[in-house]
Description:
The chain is α+β, with helices and mostly antiparallel strands. The protein has helices at 3-18, 50-67, 90-96; strands spanning 22-31, 34-42, 75-79, 100-109, 112-122, 126-133, 136-143, 147-152. Strands 7-6-5-4-8 form a five-stranded antiparallel sheet, with helices on one face. The protein has a three-stranded mixed sheet with strand order 1-2-3. A hairpin with a 3-residue loop joins strand 5 and strand 6. The mean pLDDT is 93.
Amino acid sequence: MSKITEExxxxxxxxxxxxxxELVDIEFVKEGRDWFLRVYIDTPEGNIDIxxxxxxxxxxxxxxxxxxxxxxxxxxxxxxxxxxRPLKKEEDFNKAVGQYVFIKTYEPINGMKEFExxxxxxxxxxxxxxxRIKTRKLQVVIEKEKIAxxxxxxxxxx
Length: 158
């Protein structure tokens, strides 16, 4: 996490907590000539609406204007994490057990670095995913320290 995203997290966390929402992720990225500060929020039930996003945006914008932690010009976007929300925290993975996920690893496991399938379990040391290769179903254990990126995915074969 960058220094800017850490500062923004300190500013936005009390806002989302006050509104009984969940902070999913924060990105500060350059796209072309423009910088974007993206804040992804959700409800515990997973049904965030545009009014809630607008309210967080207004309150966060006031805090950003007051503290001014970002020197360059940027666009603030507050939105839902979408159907393919990232899995970053322990709680995210635990909620995702039984759901279809995409996991990318730092190094190959059984010759593969990308796994898409159902998250069977998530424990203190590893995640277990059931993947499909052609007509065969395989269970793959992925050690937590090998997970580079994970998100919910959409199962188009179902």
